[in-house]
Specification:
Layout lengths: L21 H10 L3 H19 L19 E4 L6 H10 L29 H7 L2 E4 L7 H15 L1
Antiparallel strand pairs: 1-2
Length: 157
């Protein structure tokens, strides 16, 4: 459980997440045959999100010359926005969201003895409260993404 305590986002000890069993390995070997196609499809989904959302939220950017496999598509909501209210509204419309890494590492118990700058890590702390991950997979079709974008736009109005 990667050192997880009672809260899944508070690691109480440094651990590992290693749960690849034989069946998962067999499936992944077969998925390697379509891996490049899935990355390309995820990249198209991410580009579409960018076109639909860049005027209302901060979208992720991939540095030139690099590639993302888009395990998540995480946007940064505008300052002062109530992320929980936005997520609840999207959920009410059948759109799942997630907040990964809601607590920065330097605030987790497992890392309490690691050095931090005198003023903490204010950017990490601010971003942890502003990010929201939207549905992301290689088979996310355009009408669904348009519905997600419309719902997000409405929830921010």
């Amino acid at each position: 459980m990667h050192g997880q305590g009672t809260d899944k986002y508070d690691n109480v000890r440094i651990g590992m997440n290693a749960r690849l069993d034989t069946i998962q390995a067999a499936i992944l070997i077969e998925k390697l045959l379509i891996f490049a196609d899935e990355i390309a499809a995820r990249d198209r989904v991410a580009a579409r999100y960018g076109e639909l959302l860049s005027d209302i939220v901060d979208i992720p950017e991939v540095a030139e010359g690099l590639t993302s496999v888009w395990a998540q598509y995480t946007v940064r909501l505008p300052s002062g926005c109530n992320r929980d209210a936005v997520a609840a509204r999207l959920k009410a419309e059948g759109i799942p969201t997630a907040v990964y890494y809601a607590k920065p590492l330097h605030l987790q118990i497992a890392y309490r003895d690691y050095p931090v700058a005198g003023n903490g890590l204010p950017v990490s702390e601010r971003l942890a409260g502003q990010v929201l991950s939207l549905p992301m997979h290689p088979y996310l079709d355009e009408p669904t993404q348009q519905r997600i974008a419309h719902s997000l736009r409405a929830s921010l109005a």
